[in-house]
Specification:
Blueprint: H1 2-43, E1 46-58, E2 64-66, E3 73-81, H2 82-91, E4 97-100, H3 101-104, H4 108-111, E5 116-120, H5 125-132, E6 137-142, E7 145-161, E8 164-168, E9 172-174, E10 179-181, E11 184-190, H6 191-194, E12 199-201, E13 205-210, E14 214-219, E15 227-228, E16 232-237, E17 239-254, E18 260-265, E19 268-276, E20 289-293, H7 294-298, E21 304-305, E22 307-310, E23 316-321, E24 324-331
Parallel strand pairs: 1-4, 7-12, 8-13, 17-20
Antiparallel strand pairs: 1-3, 2-7, 3-6, 5-7, 7-11, 9-17, 10-16, 11-15, 14-16, 17-19, 18-24, 19-23, 20-22, 21-24
Length: 334
């Protein structure tokens, strides 16, 4: 008997709880419907809001370059219905306004020599309206002015420098300097930049385990706002195997007075260097000039340091043995 009473009480509460849950759900559904109707009603009203648009400038004067950065975003104060504003905010968030400088100014910037221009943006409301939508009425544009500062363009030939890292196989090296064709390019840019420009560089190149010549068509490194008459150059890296060669070369005394004879010990020194295999037999001792200074003799130095004044092109790692020599002065009789 007791169990029946307890079960009856539990059933009553469960039934009441289900009824309460249904009432709560019904209440929230009604609230949501009310919000939707309120939102739809609000969107049917007219509003004035600010919408921000990115700006793209085109058709700048061909003979000059911008030296400043005009504002890249305009804030438009527009009026329209809520539905229209919402739709355009979503659809035009990343659509830029196109500011055709030459057309908007009727070619005035192209024809004049002035370097700075301040232009009112209010006069372009109709042009921007046609780019956006006739459903939006533009009331104002912020900023109300746009400033263009121009600089004269200048062009001249500039030498190209290869930016290259080379890791050679043992006993291999450059036979001569890297060859670029063309070795100079015509560069066009702002006068202030061109006056300080010394070189144009290639894009970085890296080569490892190199043992043979390399031929590549490589790009020039971009350097805005500069432009080049060509964007690529042909590069030749002349690589060859090198070997060591030794020659005995006579030593000369610079600025030796008349009537003075200096005996050098030794009279010849060994010049050791690296040379490419193709030039090994070509290099002769008379292509070198090793000297000492008579000034060192006047200062009565015990030994004289050697100086290599002349050497052939395209040889590497040159050294002289010994690096210092002794001497004996003899005055000639008149």
């Amino acid at each position: 008997m007791t169990n029946k009473i307890i079960n009856s009480i539990l059933y009553f509460f469960k039934k009441s709880e289900i009824k309460n849950q249904r009432k709560i759900i019904t209440f929230f559904v009604c609230v949501c419907i009310a919000i939707v109707f309120w939102f739809l009603n609000a969107l049917n009203k007219s509003y004035t809001v600010d919408i921000e648009f990115p700006v793209k400038y085109i058709n700048l004067p061909a003979n000059r370059v911008l030296s400043n950065s005009p504002v890249d975003k305009y804030t438009l104060t527009v009026s329209s219905y809520g539905f229209t504003i919402l739709r355009h905010k979503l659809s035009l968030a990343f659509s830029p306004l196109v500011f055709d400088v030459n057309e908007f100014t009727r070619g005035q910037l192209q024809e004049t020599n002035r370097s700075r221009y301040v232009i009112s943006t209010k006069q372009f409301i109709n042009r921007f309206s046609s780019q956006i939508s006739n459903e939006l009425k533009i009331n104002a544009i912020h900023p109300d002015t746009v400033v263009f500062s121009f600089e004269k363009m200048k062009k001249r030939m500039v030498k190209v420098i290869p930016k290259v890292y080379i890791d050679f196989v043992a006993q291999h090296d450059l036979r001569r300097s890297i060859i670029l064709t063309p070795d100079s390019v015509m560069v066009n840019g702002p006068e202030s930049v061109m006056d300080t420009l010394s070189y144009v560089y290639t894009v970085s190149q890296k080569y490892t385990k190199v043992k043979e010549p390399i031929h590549r068509n490589i790009a020039l490194k971009e350097c805005k706002p500069l432009t080049y008459n060509t964007s690529r150059v042909m590069m030749i890296i002349p690589v060859e195997e090198f070997t060591e060669k030794n020659l005995m070369v006579p030593v000369y005394v610079n600025d030796l007075p008349e009537g003075v004879h200096v005996n050098l010990f030794p009279e010849k020194v060994r010049v050791c260097f690296q040379v490419s295999l193709s030039r090994f037999k070509e290099i002769k001792a008379d292509e070198f000039r090793v000297c000492v200074e008579y000034e060192d003799i006047q200062q009565q130095k015990e030994t004289l340091s050697l100086k290599l004044e002349v050497q052939p092109k395209d040889i590497k790692t040159v050294s002289i043995y010994p690096s210092r020599i002794e001497y004996l002065i003899e005055k000639q009789e008149r």
